[in-house]
Amino acid sequence: MLVLLAFIIIFHITSAALLFVATIDNAWWVGEDFYADVWRVCTNGTNCTEIGDHFEGYATLQAVQATMILSTTLCCIAFFIFLLQLFRLKQGARFVLTSIIQLLSCLCVMIAAAIYTDRRQDLHDNNPRYYSLTSEGRYGYAFILAWVAFAFTFISGIMYLILRKRK
Questions:
Q1: Domain residues of the chain, as ranges?
Q2: Which compartments is it annotated to reside in (predicted)?
Q3: Which of 159, 161, 154 is nearest to 18 (CA)?
Q4: pLDDT tens digits for range 40-78
Q5: Distance (Å, whole) CA 71 – CA 157
């Protein structure tokens, strides 16, 4: 049982780490001379411009930002609630509250990645300042990590739903 508990804790911490990296790192859309995420666009590795009101589609990026932050926050809250339930739940009870919060985290990261996937072309093509750079790019590793974090948080949420407290 102790090995299972250690695996679940490590899996949850890995999920949270993936969410932090995907949220913070500047590699959602990359090319030869630029990289971009939901926070800024950088050219030549040093010229970084914060994405603000001047950016076409800023409201869409704000939705992605908000859901990624919410997902990361919910994942951390779920971990602390799991630790509390580990000591407070009666024997045989399920970790339902932890599961619900983790599945909400999963839903938020899925929404963020799906919005970015759907609107990525509109975001970069409607901004003439960046169009010449960003039109020839590909999804970066932070974007891929967001989808991997989705899978991890989903599996983690299901594990908590199935898991019962034992001695």
A1: 2-25+57-126+140-162
A2: Apical cell membrane; Cytoplasm, Perinuclear region; Golgi apparatus membrane; Membrane raft
A3: 154
A4: 877 776 777 777 777 667 788 888 889 999 999 999 999
A5: 13
Length of the chain: 167
Q: pLDDT digit string (tens) for 17-39?
A: 999 999 988 788 887 777 777 78
Q: In whole angstroms, how far apart are CA 79 and each of 18, 54, 66?
A: 14, 38, 20
On whether the CB atoms of residues 116 and 143 are closer than 8 A, the answer is yes
**CA–CA dist 83, 54 (Å, integer):** 44
How far apart, in whole angstroms, are the C-alpha atoms of residue 134 and residue 128?
10
DSSP 46: T
Residue listed under structure tokens 């800023």:
58
